[in-house]
Design a protein that fits this description.
Strand content: under 5%
Helix content: over 70%
Radius of gyration: 39 Å
Shape: rod-shaped
Number of strands: 0
Order of helices and strands: HH
Number of helices: 2
Length: 136
């Protein structure tokens, strides 16, 4: 349960990171448009600020991409681990089912023995009764 919850949580975080990356891409594109739109007469200070903003956004975008890749790797590892656990549990389940079937066969065999013993006892009683009848 914890792994399934962890997977859902990881997927939600990945989705949120994807949204952040998209938002930063939009901001980056907007900053680039603003820079292109600004005429050469505008001050070098404004251009420098825009370039700094673009660089900062690129760095943030790169960091988010790295984090996203790491989260994806973590998710794959969790999935692989859960698959191994699932396979082990399935194997144990099959082993237990076989053990139950074997025990049921033993029970049926013992019940058959009991039925045979009861029949033999009934025959012995009948024979003993018949011998008693003959002697009287």
């Amino acid at each position: 349960k914890r792994q399934v919850h962890g997977n859902a949580e990881m997927m939600e975080k990945n989705r949120q990171l994807d949204e952040l990356v998209d938002a930063y891409k939009e901001k980056l594109e907007e900053a680039e448009k603003q820079m292109k739109a600004s005429s050469k007469e505008k001050s070098d200070v404004k251009t420098a600020k825009l370039q700094a903003e673009i660089e900062r956004l690129r760095n943030e975008c790169t960091n988010y991409k790295k984090e996203l890749e790491q989260k994806k790797k973590d998710m794959e590892e969790i999935y692989e681990n859960s698959t191994v656990i699932k396979n082990k549990l399935n194997k144990q389940l099959v082993e237990l089912e076989n053990e139950v079937k074997n025990k049921e066969c033993v029970i049926m065999s013992k019940e058959g023995e009991i039925t045979n013993l009861k029949s033999a006892m009934a025959e012995d009683k009948a024979m003993a009764f018949s011998l008693t009848e003959e002697n009287t």
